[in-house]
Design brief:
769 residues; alpha+beta; Rossmann fold; Immunoglobulin-like; 6-stranded antiparallel sheet; globular; Secreted protein; Ulvan_degrading_GH
Amino acid sequence: MAVWCSPRRDVRHAGATSKAWSARPQNIFQNGSVAVDHFSAAGAKVITDFLEDYVLDDESKQLFKDVGHLFWEDSVEIDGDLYWTPGLEKKFLEMYKYDLRRYVLLLQGQNGYQTNWHSSWRLDTGDGGVGVIADFRNLLTILSKTYTDYMTEWGNRVLDMQFSGQWGYNFPIDMLEVIPNIEIPEAETLSFNNHIDAYLQFSGPADLSGKPVLSIELGAGIDRAYSQSWSRLLYDAKHAFAGGINQVVVHGAVYSHNFYNTTYPGYTSHNYGYAAPHSRHQPAWDVGYPQALGYLARVQYVLQSGVPKVDLIFWDKQTAQNAYPAPLYWSNDLTKAGYSYEYLSPANFVLEEAVVQDRVFAPTRQAAKLLVLRSNDTITPDGVTYLAKYAAAGLPIIIYGTLPSQWATANKTAISASSATLKGLLELPNVHQIPEKDLAAAVASIGIKPRTQISSNGTWWTRWRETTDGETFVFIYNDNNAASTGNITFAVAGTPYLLNAWTGEEGPIVQYVAGNDSTTISLSLKGLETAIVRFSKNNTLNTHVVASSGSVLGFRVPNNGSQILAKVAHSNTSSVRLSTGKTVVVSESLVQPTWTLGNWTLTLEHWLPQEDLYDLEPDAKKVNYSVPITSPSLKSWYDLGYQTVSGIGYYSTKFQWTPSSDNDGAQLSIPPVSHGLVGTLNGKALPAFDITNPVVDISSALINGTNTLQLKASSTLMNTLSQYWSELRTFGVPPANNWAHFEKEGLGYQQNGIIGEVKIVPYALVQVV
């Protein structure tokens, strides 16, 4: 690939200046290119030939066939002001019937990556040359697929592996068009900046083309080496899940033993500038990692089941995708109302599944009920042809604002004809032109309801998936730091089940309101909490609960659903209304009220480097401190005076349990924690805690009399490393930034441990059915 660069500028690849060229090369490493051509099969073959000639022998090929799954290409970041490939100008002439060489200066500086071109050019045409640039980028998009097609074929043939790549968002090409050509497309937290809307741009084409897996390089946060908590990493993951991603590849699992000229806590890439070196040197390795990774695995399992469905499709044609995809629809009105959506490029309409049947777009894929075209969208003649076809088939279409007028072509004849077609669509009864406001209200006004109709005081994102055997899974995420409550009316009938992604437990949701083709469930979600609901056609309950008072904590369903037991906390009067119309009134004034645990003991296990900072064989040197606790409201280690301590906090307390009857039980309620948390009661392991809402039922571990509760809370290594930051080295290289930089960015000392009150919430089991 030729890369045209502006004067007075180094050419860099992967962050390092190339110094490999030699007038008299002695080996392949002295005469390499900065990058290979990513717009031809020949460029791909340069890579695969190198691998076969110098890396892969027969034994390693067989090993990949035996145990490998994916071979992967990282995001392509080839600095240059203008991308080119041999023969491009000939292909352009054949496709567009005009000579591209006349317009090279017009193209320069805006058709590469991270360019620094010193001037810009325009044509004296009506669009200033935008159409020519669009034609060029369209050809680059097409040619990039010849590269990925070859990589795919080679990987399948030689290694029996699938090709995965972070593709499209660092090129001047249409990202949405090329995603279907990647077997396992991959996004990344870093470039997508955790924007759910940006992920939905990525997931739309993948879902339309039937990709079973859509991956993400998760958690490569800038300046978060050793400060990235599990609460932050799960925040990243939940945004990705809400955006249609269903496989996470956690960034930064590293070699953890002795490495050349490298200090504790081990090899750290990128000059300590990115999260996160995940290894046994992290205090959470046994207290946090198993639980959080189990959560991620279970959510992935659910989100890889069945086929994703959305309510709306936004038109999105980008002739050149921004390297950092940003939201295209900033309002939250659709999400708050419960409408789900994705984006598609008009180039995706060529896909086999992009058809309209019974007024539904892609019925075997997203099954969307509406397509939205906005005034600032870029349009194509081919896309308008498809749009007219969909409109004629009855698909509801909303023109949001004025008709768009930005064309991705220089073909004036095609623009003229397509403009007339587009204008003519406004005459159809299923095409609605509305002002650029209140989109959710407008969608509702034309009779389109969301699959998850939401009424809450928060912002809840949902992902809906349907399986061939008639089951429906819905992932729900509260994208607020504050707790919220509300109701969701799901457009499906059947028995609902709640899936606990932290423990793997599943149980019927006993309280709901059933409609003819819908189910309404009340939910209460803590800040950043998720829930997963499964609907089954198999009816577990002959009778269910439709309403209950606030002192009812939940329900148990023993004996295969023939009974319903309410978990009723201390109250004078509680009520449960059944689907039969019967109301059961109970009084549980004898149940103990909720109380706060006190008399805590705390031992801090401080994780430190060895005396020899370069000795990495032990996990850490561990020093214990006994910390006096004087208040039932627990404080962070920092506030207790242990500002530079990282490690594990061992919390212990005893409490008396004197139930009023054999049917009494209790819940343990802990404040949200930022990192790992595990516990035992009377030596029995407690279920895994959801760190956003650490509430578990402890009834099975309670004993009459004295009970011993032990909790372990882990931290990141950041506070310990504050004392050694200037001494850290990887391969002899120190951190790029000093400690003061992190403090300035708010990423210095952290508040670790359990912070707040830990409570016991007793209840009585009362039979209501």
